Prior knowledge:
Helices cover about 50% and strands about 10% of the residues. By secondary structure, it is an alpha/beta fold. Helix 8 (about 195-210) links the parallel strand 3 and strand 4 (about 215-220). The longest helix has 21 residues, at about 70-90. The protein is globular and about 50 Å long.
Amino acid sequence: MSNLSQTVEVEIIPRLVMAHGNGVHQPAPSNILPATEGGASGFAELVLGTESYRAAELIQSYRDRGASLETIYLDLMVPAAQHLRRLWMNDEWDFAAITLALWRMQQLLRDFSPAFCADAGFKSAGLRALLTAGPGEKNDITHMMFGLVLAGEFFRRDGWDTWIEPDPAGAAFIDTIRTQWFDVVEFFASHDRKLDDLATNIRMIRRESSNQNIGVMVCGPAFTERPELVLLVGGDAVVSDFSQEVSQAQNVVKLLTERR
Length: 260
């Protein structure tokens, strides 16, 4: 993974799929995780507070009671990240506090990464994914980064090598595309105001990539209600669920490979 700035800003939690994978999200045993609304706000308060270490203790307590990390990530941390974004959008907390809280959540993902990957056992898929933000997402980059890091965890758990490059307009992104091999690139887009720019980026990737059969996936609120927009921007698939995006990426790779 590339080095990430610690001053990254705001989230994208994708919710939409075009192809179905084999992975199925298993719910936690009943009564282990709190109801989503209260649980999310309570977890958000922990990462906002001065005793943020208690968030890790809470995650571990749920694990000790039988909840999988996948369930904790999807049913607790994702709603908490969404809640944090709402707090900022509604001016209930300032930008610096929300940024720090979301950075702490990224750190929690990294801290629990060995255990998360161990749940599936070690395996190497021999595949690589590049995860990036859609163009014009600078105001939402912290929330976006939480989504990118979480997506990376699901890819790594299934044996993929992942690379996060948050700025698709930067020289580093183009250089990475030209010099590194990737099987799939995934864009996270929070709105549909920059779809023309996204289409331009996707054309550039297909033109400049060292893999002439690279797959392109898109996700985020921009595609939630209108998945057909993937055709407008020139992507191969729309992603809705972290737990199924890896199997969907594998389907995209398989389809493009068979077209050769």
